[in-house]
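Now read these lines:
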Amino acid sequence: MTGTALLLGTTGMLSAAARHAAGLAEKSVIVSRNAGSFSFGDEVLDAKCIALPISYEDEPALLAALEEHAPFDLALTWIRPRAELLRAALDALVAPGGTLIEVMGSRSILAGKNGEPSIA
């Protein structure tokens, strides 16, 4: 892949997936409240990353900042499922033919009372 990757909310649980996406892209835009201090620990990857320390709760600021870097050839996002308007706006920032991957949950909600797998 070439082009630009959007990595939103991926500095924790999804950091391995974000690292893979950043490795494929010419430029990566990393968005999280702690993006300013985030590092892949790899000078080559870190050099092609733009950190935007913005919470997705501030939708107007987030979208304004992202528009400067759009369109995105790949977007990997982890935001709350009920943020329909934000999710639609992010979809509009993906290039025609680009890929949008939305993560809607976390492993922590899949564990039962005693740590066993659960979907309830």
